[in-house]
Design a protein that fits this description.
- This is DUF4242 domain-containing protein.
- With about 80 residues, the chain is of the alpha+beta class.
- Helix content is about 30%, strand content about 35%.
- Strand 2 and strand 3 form a beta hairpin.
């Protein structure tokens, strides 16, 4: 399945809040054949980055929307390198 990196520009964000949102994503993702793999948070800049395995970007965004309402501002198809 394709990999996507999504970006959220929230202005204010805490690691604890993002951890809770990620748990909600995990509880919702199976309905959309999506797997949220990892996330990164920059509290200072209010940004969140999520790595997701999904059939398409729309499915990934549906999980966020249903789980907690914080849809991504940008979603990029990515390929993993080493």
């Amino acid at each position: 399945m394709p990999l996507f990196m999504d970006v959220h520009n929230l202005g204010e964000v805490s690691l604890a809040d993002v951890a809770g949102a990620h748990e909600a994503d995990l509880a919702t993702q199976d309905r959309y054949d999506v797997s949220y793999l990892r996330y990164w948070v920059n509290e200072e800049q209010g940004k969140i980055f999520c790595l997701v395995d999904a059939p398409d970007a729309e499915a990934a965004n549906h999980v966020h929307k249903e789980a907690h309402g914080l849809v991504a501002d940008e979603i990029y198809a990515v390929s993993e390198g080493s």
